TrEMBL record:
<dbReference type="InterPro" id="IPR000873">
    <property type="entry name" value="AMP-dep_synth/lig_dom"/>
</dbReference>
<protein>
    <recommendedName>
        <fullName>Phenylacetate-coenzyme A ligase</fullName>
        <ecNumber>6.2.1.30</ecNumber>
    </recommendedName>
</protein>
<feature type="domain" description="AMP-dependent synthetase/ligase">
    <location>
        <begin position="78"/>
        <end position="285"/>
    </location>
</feature>
<dbReference type="GO" id="GO:0010124">
    <property type="term" value="P:phenylacetate catabolic process"/>
</dbReference>
<dbReference type="InterPro" id="IPR051414">
    <property type="entry name" value="Adenylate-forming_Reductase"/>
</dbReference>
<comment type="subunit">
    <text>Monomer.</text>
</comment>
<dbReference type="InterPro" id="IPR028154">
    <property type="entry name" value="AMP-dep_Lig_C"/>
</dbReference>
<comment type="similarity">
    <text>Belongs to the phenylacetyl-CoA ligase family.</text>
</comment>
<keyword id="KW-0436">Ligase</keyword>
<dbReference type="InterPro" id="IPR045851">
    <property type="entry name" value="AMP-bd_C_sf"/>
</dbReference>
<comment type="function">
    <text>Catalyzes the activation of phenylacetic acid (PA) to phenylacetyl-CoA (PA-CoA).</text>
</comment>
<keyword id="KW-0547">Nucleotide-binding</keyword>
<dbReference type="InterPro" id="IPR011880">
    <property type="entry name" value="PA_CoA_ligase"/>
</dbReference>
<dbReference type="Pfam" id="PF00501">
    <property type="entry name" value="AMP-binding"/>
</dbReference>
<dbReference type="GO" id="GO:0047475">
    <property type="term" value="F:phenylacetate-CoA ligase activity"/>
</dbReference>
<comment type="pathway">
    <text>Aromatic compound metabolism; phenylacetate degradation.</text>
</comment>
<dbReference type="InterPro" id="IPR042099">
    <property type="entry name" value="ANL_N_sf"/>
</dbReference>
Amino acid sequence: MIWAPEMETMPRKELQLLQLRRLQQVVQRAYERVPFTRQRLDQAGVRPEHIKTLDDLGRLPFTRKSDFRDTYPFGLLTVPASQLARIHASSGTTGKPTVVGYTSSDLRVWAEVCARCLASSGAQPGDVFQNAYGYGLFTGGLGMHYGAELMGLVVVPVSGGNTERQIMLLQDFGAKIIACTPSYALTLAEALDARGIRPGSLPLRYGVLGAEPWTEAMRDEIERKLGITAVNIYGLSEVIGPGVSNECIEEQNGAHIFEDHFLAEVINPRTEKAVEFGEVGELVFTTLTKEALPVIRYCTGDIASLDPNPCRCGRTFVRMSRIMGRTDDMLIIRGVNVYPTQVEAALVGVAELSPHYQLVVTRQRTLDELDVSIEVNEGFTKHLGGTFTGEEAEVQELTTRCQQKLLGVLGITARVTLVPPGKLPRSEGGKLRRVVDQRKL
Ligand SMILES: [Zn+2]
């Protein structure tokens, strides 16, 4: 079902007018009330009244994670802390956490977008909802909790972990929909299997999975082992928490961004210019309705692309692809941005390959070379008769096919070397070092 059809299926022309009006308001508010933002805009020579069309968004300076750190804890708020209704924080890798504040109006908006997520994931009012996201300072648990209450679900606030109890509650309370991370969904699936509980024998039908990147292969495995339809939810605390976008069960092909609340751009992280629809780059969000902590052009560090094509579910909101990596992982090869996970995406449907590959980047004089080594799977070596020299006609053919697929996705030519299973060097933990950059940059 569509929770807010009047917004989620709004004609795009109308939506853009709404976005512009809200953008003007949010920039005005931040400029007037946040000295940090005022200073940034002044430095960029932009004033709120310069925002006349949505294209003027590109004139506004970016907000980055470091800005949260530099203004810790409350420097980006538009209201005194005493006017907040709640504070969340995400653990930083170094030092202080990233702090986000919400007014009661912000909490209403947040519940609204999370209700939309649950509805597009298959939930219907009256369904039992097992919320296995962590409750606490982390935004996942409480964000989904209030969204679920708003849409009339029966919430089981079990929080994360304790697989034994999760399984008992799934059986006894009969949740039809569960929210957790994809890796925890797999843990649950394996635990059910170990207890001889068949997928499909529980009332569970839908999974809203997110808070970490995952792949289509993982989706297949989760759906098969849990007997559910699994969709991707995306969000980040700096923007609001969970509820920025969610896939629909109709297509399961990219998460619809709730564009009446969040204005999305994808930029080339190097040039900082917006890229075309379909092109891969860094996701950037501007909040359109948040009071306490509006963010203007927040650079997420997440790599994805946007798809404006109409969707079978009827929503008119653009869809974002899966997160293909982080800007920190980006390689620049012959002037082209390359994300290691694109290699995986390019080769995912090739039946003869294993998921193990390695990228080696070298530089001969001034020219960058990309070598991609990929392990074939056992089935393929068996097909070859158990031996693998690399000279076989089948190997040559497969190499060419891989090369073409990589060229299609990366936009540059890579040298492909196929190797037998288990041949690529593993580190101590059995993990592969996926990228080896031998250039002296
Ligand atoms: Zn859809």
